[in-house]
Design goal:
By secondary structure, this protein is of the alpha+beta class. The protein has helices spanning about 5-15, 70-80, 95-105, 110-125, 145-155, 160-170, 175, 185-195, 210-220, 240-245, 260, 280, 300-310, 310-325, 330-340, 350-365, 385-390, 575-580, and strands at about 40-45, 50-55, 370-375, 380-385, 395, 405, 410-415, 415-420, 425-430, 440-445, 450-460, 465-475, 480-485, 490-500, 505-515, 515-520, 530, 540-550, 550-560, 570, 595, 600-605. Helices cover about 30% and strands about 20% of the residues. The radius of gyration is 35 Å and the shape is elongated.
């Protein structure tokens, strides 16, 4: 019932304003009854509105009414009138109030029991009645009927207070029991396991998996990235290219949230029927199309794969590892990670095992200064409005340090869909010194899904495209092309040769750029391409990479300028040294690129 002070406030708001210039109230109809006498309800013959049958009087379900109170229940419903203090302003038959009072009557057989069982289910993972949405014959019998009845009566006597109910549960011995079996007496544990192997009688706390939202939030908390901002607009999780490709119009109705927004709690994640966060969906996120009383708990390979190899997990692990590097040594790093993730100190055995694991993987994994990978993370078509929201680095995945990313050329526009130009698709420029003539050597390893890989030299941004020299390894055509693109869009294929791609194997290349451009493969002394070019046609710009279709790995990348005294520059190793050398105090880049020549000498790159 509306409190009296609220009723006075409503009456005051409804009165005409004394000031003629005051703005009138804006009204929006939410719900309204027809009046004191509701319209008749009739049985529809075969469900057709044009064939009404006999009149149906309002009544409560007889199966939920006790025989000795059924007459009183009917009287409560038929003779009820609105008792609201503003009933004169909003007339009502009072049926909704009568129904609400009937639901919370002390002798109602279901309301309190269902509420108590649902709260119990939230805390223990399973209700005293396993079927929380079905207390009928098709549902499960209570595992402890007296306990359910006692909690229901106590719940009503405490004014239907959920806080009191939860306090009652959380201070109980059942809630405070351990989920392990090593704390009890061996004989008692053996008897309990024989009599109640499923643990339904709660002789130990039920061991259960966290829900999807809790797993995601816990990963963000452990990595120190959880954004605890309360309220505000919804958050759009980052979608991979594989997820976007499953839509008829990839990205339609989706937005690009910032990195900080994507670290908000899962409560604020947008929910769309056709597109979901892959992490939440794999971990049995709720079905949004229909009511769901209990979350299903499955164990499928997708969950293991997304937690071991998913991008979300990898990003959280990288953030956690970056913070752990502040510790003094590997042992201190392990202790810090245990305290951060598990909220406890590692045992001696755990510390030894973790140290051995770190040593083993340090010998197996390539360092970031030895190998890099690039992979497009968008499908070949995107909804135009969504594509324009994406940051440049969202189109191509690769190392963050010393590389600048570009979305590439997209066109089309049919029904709002943009299609990528695969020859000028997403690409990245190395932010080292600019090059003109010299030798580029290295190894590349395209996976089986790669369509083409282009190594760039003397390249620069030309709108969304690139200009300069491009050495394209075309897997679909089994060809190698030498391309020269001029600023403004003109392009010519200066040379072309056959090429036999080998999936998932390293292939060495040597690219000599000078008066004659030569390309060598697999340390062969004979060039696969040899194209003369005038010095005026040689562009000056950056080294870069473009790839479409799948992932390409690069290693041992070195550049040496022309000349007898030229020194080869290890492109991948230069990532770390370039980051460690900040700009001089008081300088700012203003969007430009600077090259450090010595401890006291700088120049514009």
């Amino acid at each position: 019932m509306l409190p009296l002070q609220d009723a006075d406030r409503v009456r005051q708001a409804l009165q005409p304003a004394a000031d003629p210039a005051a703005q009138p109230l804006t009204w929006t109809l939410a719900v309204r009854e027809a009046g004191l006498v509701p319209a008749e309800t009739r049985v529809l013959i075969r469900g057709q509105a044009a064939s009404p049958g006999s009149v149906v009087q309002p009544a409560f379900p007889q199966v939920l009414c006790r025989s000795e109170t059924s007459a009183a229940d009917q009287l409560l419903l038929t003779d009820m009138r609105s008792q609201s203090p503003i009933a004169d302003l909003f007339p009502s038959s009072g049926r909704r109030l009568a129904f609400a009072r009937w639901l919370v009557r002390r002798d109602h057989p279901l309301t309190a029991r269902v509420a108590v069982n649902r709260v119990w289910h939230f805390h223990f993972g399973r209700g005293l009645v396993g079927s929380t949405g079905d207390f009928g014959r098709a549902g499960e019998a209570p595992v402890h009927q007296p306990l359910l009845d006692w909690l229901s009566v106590d719940f009503m006597e405490r004014g239907w207070s959920l806080k009191s109910l939860q306090r009652q549960i959380l201070t109980s011995a059942a809630w405070r029991r351990s989920s392990g079996t090593d704390a009890g007496q061996p004989l008692q544990v053996e008897q309990a396991e024989q009599q109640d192997p499923a643990g339904r009688l709660l002789w130990k706390f039920p061991f259960r998996r966290l829900e999807a939202e809790s797993i995601r939030d816990r990963m963000l908390f452990s990595s120190g990235e959880l954004n605890t901002t309360v309220g505000g607009p919804e958050m759009y999780p980052q979608l991979s290219g594989e997820v976007l490709a499953g839509q008829s119009k990839p990205g339609l109705g989706w937005r690009s949230s910032t990195a900080a927004e994507q670290c908000r709690r899962s409560l604020y994640a947008i929910v769309k029927r056709g597109v979901r966060d892959p992490v939440l969906e794999a971990l049995d996120y709720t079905n949004t199309a229909s009511p769901l009383t209990e979350r299903p708990v499955t164990t499928v390979a997708t969950q293991a794969l997304i937690l071991l190899h998913g991008r979300f997990t990898a990003d959280r692990a990288a953030a956690l590892a970056q913070q752990a590097l502040n510790a003094a040594d590997s042992a201190a790093q392990i202790r810090w990670i245990y305290e951060r993730v598990l909220q406890r100190h590692p045992s001696a055995a755990e510390l030894t095992a973790a140290s051995e694991l770190m040593s083993a993987w340090e010998q197996q994994l390539p360092l970031p200064s030895q190998q890099v990978s690039f992979r497009p993370d968008v499908p070949e078509s995107l909804y135009s409005a969504f594509r324009q929201q994406l940051p440049q680095q969202a189109f191509l995945l690769g190392p963050a340090e010393m590389w600048q990313y570009h979305s590439g050329v997209w066109g089309g526009g049919y029904e709002g869909i943009d299609v990528v130009d695969k020859r000028l698709g997403p690409h990245a420029f190395w932010l080292g010194p600019q090059v003109t003539t010299g030798v580029l050597t290295g190894q590349l390893r395209p996976d089986s899904s790669v369509e083409s890989v282009t190594i760039l030299a003397g390249a620069a941004a030309d709108g969304a495209a690139w200009s300069g020299l491009g050495l394209t390894f075309d897997r679909l055509r089994s060809r190698i092309q030498l391309r020269l693109r001029r600023p403004g869009g003109s392009e010519q294929v200066s040379g072309e040769a056959n090429w036999i791609p080998v999936d998932s194997q390293w292939q060495s290349f040597r690219w000599e750029i000078g008066p004659e451009i030569k390309v060598f493969l697999e340390h062969n002394s004979n060039p696969i391409l040899a194209v003369p070019i005038s010095s005026e046609s040689l562009p000056t710009g950056r080294l870069g990479v473009a790839v479409w279709g799948g992932r390409v790995d690069l290693r041992q990348l070195q550049w040496a300028d022309s000349g007898p005294a030229a020194v080869a520059t290890d492109i991948l190793a230069a990532r770390q040294s370039a980051v460690e050398a900040p700009l001089p105090t008081g300088w700012s880049q203003f969007g430009g690129d600077w090259q450090r020549l010595s401890d006291t000498s700088w120049r514009v790159a």
